[in-house]
Structure of Ferredoxin:
Amino acid sequence: AYVVVDNCIKCKYQDCVEVCPVDCFYEGENMLVIHPDECIDCGVCEPECPAEAIKPDSDDGLEQWAELNRKYAELWPNISRKGDAPADADEWNGVPDKLANHFS
Ligand code: SF4
Ligand code: F3S
């Protein structure tokens, strides 16, 4: 499966939602996650994210993110339509360690 990682937080551009053929994104206040059992590994969302916040879970060091995506995909509502990104999304693009300070 693919996973959403740190840089989505407070960027939440949602271009990924637009292209996913199986609607496996779930929406928190500040980020989206992917349901790992629903993702068909098509890979089309990865290049669409302006924040480069989508990675294959086979990449090194993403265990924490794989767990977080699985956990919150069960708790958050599904999102199948792209909404507006936060007005200050571009200011958050690239800010480090957002998980520790801005996750929700
Ligand atoms: Fe959806 Fe494909 Fe991205 Fe998985 S890899 S989340 S199926 S667009
Ligand atoms: Fe997040 Fe990128 Fe989608 S910022 S909402 S993973 S397009």
Summary: The chain has a mean pLDDT of 97.
